Model the fold of this input.
Amino acid sequence: MIRFETVFKRYPGSREALSGVSVSMDTGEMAFLTGRSGAGKSTMLKLIGLLERPTRGQVIVNGRNTGGIKRRQIPAFRRQIGMVFQDHKLLNDRSVFDNVALPLVIAGLGLKESGKRVRAALDQVGLLHTEKVRPMTLSTGEQQRVGIARAVVSKPSLLIADEPTGNLDPGLSLEIMRIFERFNDVGTTVLIASHDLHLISQLGHRRIELSEGRLTFGGEGEYGHA
Done:
């Protein structure tokens, strides 16, 4: 599903964010990407989602080398990937329903099918009752769940999340991670960047660790608890 082959990434005027990273994830796997702030976690996720491209090396996602994907092909490529962000990136001038429906509107899906999918996604995260309200009226944890519903409404084969519990207390953080596990249980590949080692240790999934842009744990055959 995901393979990094000797990947380097250097941002202009900066040190290397990734230095020769080689690692892979199988289809249907769930893993955590760990490391201190600045270790390269977000960069890896951006390379997977084609928000950035590597300076050197190859990133293969779902059998496709992202280096061969042209700019005009990126929107179609991203439809197979659900992305969840720490700050939700919700539109507060639209209802919860409209926020979750946004990827389907962009994809040109019909109203009837869109409505069915949006309500199913909200139901999966326990927020069907909030479809008509504005996101700003919800708690931080509920807003994060809306973000997850929006990420999965297109039924992506891959779900990536960047510090999705960074603003939540321990109880809510575990609740959010259990939601990710439920999607993984039905076959979705899940990769989550998180620095919360205590939380990760409760879940028992593979850990891929970065330090200063280098892979330090979680390569082939390394499966460990935080």
